[in-house]
């Protein structure tokens, strides 16, 4: 069964906002332990798709399974890490307090919270800024803190909506190395991106356009299928490079 081999399965998922259909019959499978990229022009439905996967939003019809369970599923929430496009941070308090707050929601112990907070903050190069109020963070620092928060509880599934926007290339490389390590340890990672060199780093890619999944495969397959010289060329061929809105 698809559900057993794959960590994330979407079967004929549709989503309407009022009269407007923003997802059309999305069929998608993400194998366990893979890094799967969702690529497409602005407004094509990437965020809507990942919110359904994360259990934050419900589809209008169709089924979504994560770790073999039908979504949305409250009991799965502490096995999923989700990083939204806009940072969900409390700016009046410190990064440490933000981490503590979320960790407590996940039921982590005080000792665990302290150890893990330091670990994740060092990972995103914010080890020195743990006690600073978030209001004093730059945009890029807030993104990195959001990423740290999404992996704080060692989730089995990590869903990242444009995680490296505003992050410099060097740190972006470090973050990708960390994502590879996590995937080698069995974590399944779903990442949305506009950045072509990031798309190439994914094990598998899905390209979306106007709510439809138009192509799926490895970055190499997507290029070879149409004789494209780069993933950027494939993206332009499959999806067009113009914005939808
Ligand atoms: N709550 C909402 N109510 C009405 N329309 C919505 C809502 N959320 C999203 N949409 C619409 O659904 C479509 C898909 O939006 P979505 O945010 O999923 O796109 P996206 O591919 O993630 O875009 P971007 O790359 O710019 O973030 C857009 O046309 C958007 O305007």
UniProtKB/TrEMBL annotation:
GO MF term set: ATP binding; ATP hydrolysis activity
Domain of life: Bacteria
InterPro entries for this protein: AAA+_ATPase, ABC_transporter-like_ATP-bd, ABC_transporter-like_CS, P-loop_NTPase
Record flagged with keyword Repeat: no
Disulfide bond among keywords: no
Pfam entry (one): ABC_tran
This protein's UniProt keywords: ATP-binding, Nucleotide-binding
UniProt domain ABC transporter: residue ranges: 8-235
SUPFAM superfamilies xref list: P-loop containing nucleoside triphosphate hydrolases
UniProt protein name: ABC transporter ATP-binding protein
Species name: Sinanaerobacter chloroacetimidivorans
């Amino acid at each position: 069964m698809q559900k057993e081999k794959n960590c994330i399965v979407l079967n004929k998922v549709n989503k309407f906002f009022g009269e407007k259909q923003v997802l059309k019959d999305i069929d998608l499978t993400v194998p366990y332990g893979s890094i799967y990229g969702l690529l497409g022009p602005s407004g094509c439905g990437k965020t809507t798709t990942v919110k359904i996967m994360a259990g934050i939003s419900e589809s209008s019809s169709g089924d979504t399974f994560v770790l073999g369970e039908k979504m949305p599923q409250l009991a799965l929430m502490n096995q999923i890490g989700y990083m939204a496009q806009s940072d969900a941070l409390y700016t009046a308090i410190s990064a440490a307090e933000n981490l503590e707050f979320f960790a407590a929601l996940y039921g982590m112990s005080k000792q665990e919270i302290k150890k893990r907070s330091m670990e994740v903050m060092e990972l995103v190069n914010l080890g020195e800024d743990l006690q600073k109020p978030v209001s004093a963070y730059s945009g890029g620092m807030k993104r990195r803190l959001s990423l740290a928060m999404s992996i704080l509880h060692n989730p089995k599934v990590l869903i990242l909506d444009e995680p490296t926007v505003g992050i410099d290339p060097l740190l972006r490389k470090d973050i990708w190395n960390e994502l590879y390590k996590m995937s080698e340890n069995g974590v399944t990672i779903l990442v949305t991106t506009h950045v072509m060199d990031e798309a190439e780093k994914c094990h598998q890619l899905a390209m979306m356009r106007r709510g439809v999944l138009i192509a799926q495969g490895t970055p190499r397959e997507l290029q070879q299928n149409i004789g494209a010289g780069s993933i950027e060329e494939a993206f332009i061929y499959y999806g067009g490079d113009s914005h939808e809105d």
